[in-house]
Design goal:
It is built from 12 helices and 9 strands. It is of the alpha/beta class and 307 residues long.
């Protein structure tokens, strides 16, 4: 496994990062700590300041990031945001891109990834890797993310040392779009796990046992998992800041699962139910609430509080 910390400084690529949200900020910070030159841009300019203080170079536009970088990473909200960063006014596509790579950590529809990759290459000859991530903000901060990628094998190997400054695992899953499809499989599992763990945790609370001890009690058994160990304590203790991920993001991904599943004639009854539960959570808790607040949907109302 390649180690970015061992990259010869003379051979090291100049890096860019666009989108300094819950994931982008800690991921960019890890690149800086590994000693890489990183140029950053964010639509809200204020989010660049802490990274500039840590050694990053601030860019005025996405075009400037592309012009000054060999490899451009980005993590933004959805396909519309990716489109704007690439093809909007002074976007990535307006700078020369031959020999350069764009690595998109955003979670978008596989068809959108393929379309954007083709259009960007037609516009400025830049290459594309779709590389959605899993592991949440904790994984971004600790460098333990799992990243699944679609693109050319040679391009994957070119970016691998830098990606492994931010992630524990970087797996090439196939051609462009394969990374996004793999992320959808991940979200089927994670979205359903959140819903199921919320159900089990509420049952424990309502039955009068110490739900905070479920991870300890079930450790090593068939029910044990990283989600069990991480999610249940946060649900029980009401720890939602910083959020592991927003409700709107999980719902977007589960809606994409439903769309792709329909196109591929694939039944996804559990993911569809999880999607509807997150739609309820969005209505009840708000789009920007932590996805684990799905647990609060089953809290109920005491008779004295009912109107």
């Amino acid at each position: 496994m390649a180690d970015a910390s061992k990259t010869n400084p003379q051979d090291a690529a100049k890096l860019g990062y666009l989108g300094l949200g819950l994931m982008g900020t800690p991921m960019s910070r890890r690149l800086l700590k590994a000693g890489h030159q990183v140029t950053v841009w964010n639509r809200s300019q204020g989010k660049m300041a802490p990274l500039v203080e840590a050694g990053a170079i601030a860019a005025a536009t996405p075009r400037d990031v592309m012009a000054s970088s060999d490899i451009v990473f980005m993590c933004v909200t959805d396909a519309a945001a990716v489109e704007e960063v690439i093809f909007g006014r002074e976007g990535l596509s307006s700078a020369p891109g031959a020999g350069k790579l764009v690595v998109d950590f955003s979670s978008i529809h596989p068809d959108a990834a393929r379309d954007l990759a083709t259009r960007l290459n037609d516009a400025n000859r830049a290459g594309w890797i779709d590389a959605p991530v899993s592991g949440g903000t904790k994984g971004a901060e600790e460098g333990t993310l799992a990243i699944m990628a679609g693109g050319e094998a040679a391009d994957i190997e070119r970016v691998r040392p830098y990606v492994l400054s931010m992630a524990r695992r970087f797996t090439h899953m196939g051609p462009t779009g394969a990374g996004q499809t793999t992320k959808l499989c991940n979200q089927v599992i994670v979205g359903c796990a959140m819903a199921v763990l919320a159900e089990a945790t509420r049952l424990a609370v309502n039955a009068g046992i110490d739900a905070d001890r479920l991870p300890e009690a079930l450790a090593g058994g068939f029910a044990d998992s990283i989600p069990l160990q991480l999610f249940v304590p946060r649900m029980v203790q009401g720890i939602h800041s910083p959020p592991l991920g927003h409700i709107a993001t999980m719902l977007k991904d589960l809606d994409t699962v439903a769309d792709v599943a329909q196109a591929k004639s694939t039944p996804v009854p559990m993911a569809s139910l999880a999607g509807q539960l997150f739609r309820l959570a969005k209505a009840a808790r708000g789009a920007e609430a932590d996805a684990l607040e799905i647990y609060k949907l089953s809290a109920g109302v005491k008779p004295s509080e009912a109107s």
